[in-house]
Amino acid sequence: MRSSPRTLHWALHRLGLNRLLLHMFLLVVATLTAAPYFWALSTSLKQRRDVFTAVPQWFPPSPTLQNYVDLFAMAPFGLFLINSILVVSGILVVQLITAPLAAYVFSRMRFPGSGFLFALFLIQMMMPIHAVVVPNYLTMNTLGLLDTRVAMMLPFWASGYAVFLLRQAFRQVPRDFEDAALIDGCSGLRFLWNVLIPLAKPTVIAFSLISVVTHWNDFLWPLIVTDTPGVRTLTIGLAMFVQQESGADWPVLMAGTIFVTMPLLILFLAFQRKFIESFMFAGLKG
Amino acid sequence: MRTASNRISPYLYLIPSLIFLVAFTYYPIFSSIYISLHEWNLFTREPLFVGFENYRLMADDPVFWRVVRNTLVYVAGTIPITMAIALILAILLNERLGWLRGVYRVTAFYPTMIPMAAAAMLWVWLLNPGIGLINHYLAELGVPRIEWLYDMNWALPAIMLTAIWKNFGYFMLIYLAGLQNLPGELYEAASLEGAGFGQKVWYITLPLLAPTSIFVLVVGVITSFNVFDLVHLMTQGGPGNRTNVMVYYIYQHAFRFADYGMGATLTVVFVAAILLVIVAIMGFMERRTYYEV
After folding, report:
1. Where are the domains of chain A?
2. What CATH code is carried by the domain that includes residue B184?
């Protein structure tokens, strides 16, 4: 009878009361934050009869993957996944060509108009694409690019944010490096490629992760410029699926939702440290 | 060494970026202004010059003012709460917590990794009036059933709740980054003077985090002005336009009603508002920040 208060007393002594309260508080917050996703995951693994119960079943009593099978039969989620991968990598690859070139210029060269041109990049960093979707849609229409994967990528091929981050990184590289490289006959593009980019690797990785997450999650722009399932990405595929279902087939809807989130979450859990460092680092530089 | 090619090369390196920058960021601003002065919808074959008629129509439309109000309520409601939660958690997570710190950090941050569209679906399910989890637990506490996304007064708060859940982890991470850069000596000196945890937070941490807060505020305000995905998937602007926000309203005009003239007019007003907010926040904070980290 008396052992339990004594154990508690021991725990309090060992941890300190404050620390124990702190952990309890943080555990509550963590549970509340994790609950929505866990509940959806659990729903997606349930049989229909286990969804509508008087008492919520946090764990599926008889787990099944049938909802995922149904999902794939009802809409081409595999194709959406491929489209998402294509669009996200298409954006990143071009950004990693255009941005270092511009960042190199702004970090190493002085030329007339450099201040004005850099301001153009900085303003783009703050001006969200959402604000100008109407004229951009009309541009895509004029170019005859509506309902293509390229249309989903084009507006992001110049990134003020990437230029800004890379410029900061390139500026850290001492002048001596450039002089030494020049003597070895390594200048311009070769200096950028062989010296600056390898030295700025952490920034390149951080930006790449942020770009991938951002565009994986893009919604409004792909929604507007796509019209057929063949080119749709996961987020748009999910939205269309929800509309098409419109009913209350919750286990399948949640299976779709979970499937859309899975690729990034798995990457995130596998490379947690890199992701968290990158997002922290980018926040710091901003 | 100064040759002609040296003088031209900076511009050459900038061209790839500038093409896309001009085509998809700057040209659209000017073309919006141009289109906004025209009537251009399903009934007009070609844009028809009408001067400021679109702006007059917009200002006379009560729905527009409802949309402005909703957007402001959304921004003013979500940002301070999200920032407060993020700041408190960051300060607590900066304490010594052992291996559990990693667990707390991952659980707070994972919503950042999932698409807004997916977040919307998670919460539509949680907020389902009949069989949703939230109403179930509220009923156990004796709270009468709330219609959430179908209720004139609860729909916008429900969307705001989703946004707070989605974003606080990212803000928290930025604050954690800011905290790691604070000088340790100040805290040691304060401890020697006998300052407690609360005093250290109030007199050292908060003032030194001011630049981080400005960054979070700017990012937060800009992203929340642009809320669209949640509205599109959770309420479609309803009920009775109570959750209709600026970007959704632009979308409706341009892509539902095919009214490009009005879509462009709203775009011009919206871009101007965003630029104004950015300048205002920067100007205001410039005067209030005494510390540089």
Report:
1. 3-64, 71-285
2. 1.10.3720.10
A188-217 per-position pLDDT tens digit = 888 888 889 999 999 999 999 999 999 999
Counting Cβ atoms within 10 Å, is residue A150 exposed (0-12), middle (13-18) or buried (19+)? middle
Q: Is B31 contained in some domain?
A: no
Kindly state whether residue B160 falls inside one of the protein's structural domains: yes
Portion 3-22 of A in contact with B at CB < 8 A: 19, 22
Give me the residue from A40, A97, A276 closest to B122, CB to CB: A40
Q: Note whether B17 and B92 are same-domain residues.
A: no
- Which candidate, B167, B122, B114, B102, places its Cα nearest to that of A264? B114
> Quick check: is B293 in a domain?
no
CA distance B241 to B250: 13
Residue with tokens 């995130």: A268
**pLDDT of the residue at B292:** 42
pLDDT in tens, A3-60: 455 665 665 566 677 888 899 999 999 999 999 999 999 999 999 888 888 888 899 9
Number of domains in chain B: 2
- Give yes or no: residues B51 and B8 share one domain: no
Q: Does domain A71-285 have CATH number 3.30.360.10?
A: no
* Distance set, CA B259 to CA A42, A82, B39, B253 (Å): 43, 34, 8, 5
Answer whether B89 sits within 8 Å of A29, measured CB to CB.
yes
pLDDT at B141: 94
- Confidence at A158, pLDDT banded by 50, 70, 90: very high
> Quick one: CA torsion of A165, B275, A214, A211, rounded to 10 degrees?
-20
- In the numeric block, the tokens 């939702």 are attached to A257
Stretch B232-244: mean pLDDT, rounded?
93
CA distance A1 to chain B (A): 31
Q: Bridge-partner residues for B48, per DSSP?
A: B39
Q: Which residues constitute the domain of residue B157?
A: 37-288
- A230 part of contact set with chain B, CB < 8 Å: no
